[in-house]
Design brief:
Blueprint: H1 5-14, E1 19-21, H2 22-32, H3 34-44, H4 57-65, H5 68-93, E2 102-104, E3 121-124, H6 127-138, H7 142-150, H8 155-159, E4 164-167, H9 174-187
Parallel strand pairs: 1-2, 3-4
Helix pairs in contact: 2-3, 2-5, 3-5, 6-7
Length: 190
Amino acid sequence: MGSGKTTVCQIFEQLGISVYNADTEAKKLYVTHLGLKRAVIELLGDAAYFADGLLNRKWITEAIFSDTAKRQALNKLVHPLLLEDFNAWCTQKNDGKTPYILKEAAILFETGSYKELDFVIGVLAPKPLIYERIMQRDSISASQTSKRLKAQWPEKKWKALCKYTILNDGKAPLIKQVLNTHNCIVLGQE
């Protein structure tokens, strides 16, 4: 969260690589999958959705980041459906035109979904920059940002499971790192 995964993925897309954005697709599932919607309401209450049927993201975010059990229960509801959606997307995108595809996800390790992938590219950024990005993007305080970040695996833990890493600190040449990673993947190099 806040490392700049989306920016990195946009560069990969410019190289012709298809990217599945798990967060975007999860938001769609929350609204379109009636079984999930019912389960979310059962878990979190009617306030999880607005009267028009749209997801009350701000309310849900507050609810799950103040209650670990609810956050874990919500993840157990949505992630199997998201994996199913991702697998269907992969089948559709597996047309032989690109050497690989990417899955962009904030909680890849926490949900165990990284085990379904051939390898992981981690996007790193310094903590102060991560805080700044999240606070600006979501219009939240430093304490709210801290609460969200504490729900994720520490960098040291997930970095050990990454085959490649890209530093997105605003200083290191990002495009060059993406190109190098892309070339390593295409050529099968480490």
